[in-house]
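Fold this sequence, please.
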Amino acid sequence: MHAEADYPAEARNLARFDALLDGSDTFALPALHANLCTPSVLAMSCMDSVPLESLVEAPQALRDRVAAALIDLVPHELFLFGVMQTDPNLANCRHDPATGRIVLLDFGAVQPVSPDLSADFRALARVALDGGARQTREAMLRIGYFDPATPSHHQDLIQAMFDAAMGPLRQDGPFDFGQSDLLERLRRMGLAIGNDRELAHVPPAATLFLHRKVGGMYLMVAKLRARVALRPMVEAWCDPAALPR
């Protein structure tokens, strides 16, 4: 919480993301007024925009486009930018009807992404798309979902939850976020794992922050009742040679 209330750090994060997304036709950020900032004041421009949730009754095509853009921002952060805003919620994203761009706010919860972690998650995504159980478990072990000392039945539970979460990425057609019960199924599986007092392993903080990002993004897209084809999007990022420059 102290880190997320560090206004000088947030100002630096805002400036960094502004540079990373410079020239984007999809995203817009407030302009930082550095000369007006202090340790207790973060000064930036006011962006003409409406709440993202105002789009819940918008045409399906608009909701799908906005949702796809927000989802695609995650691999950009993970595999290209090397830095991630880890607190996505409806209040931190808005929509500019005049330009069609998504306004991004609140850069207090920004975390660095190491090259090693990025490479490990790319490897995990690659094997998870194909559903190889042994390769998936090895990739999960490298990232720290469990360690070699974790009992095999606990590893099975964690991998089963991961496999369920990968279901939308494995289908070829669009995934309907508004009609899926995936979140409830994952919640039940997570409660079952959390109630097992013999499981003491906690994944690394960097992995937990990434999951906060993914979980928050899922909730936003589900609120929009969007339909997005996820597999082609993820496949495009699995090959390091295909990464945007």
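The chain has a mean pLDDT of 90. The chain has eight helices and eight strands.
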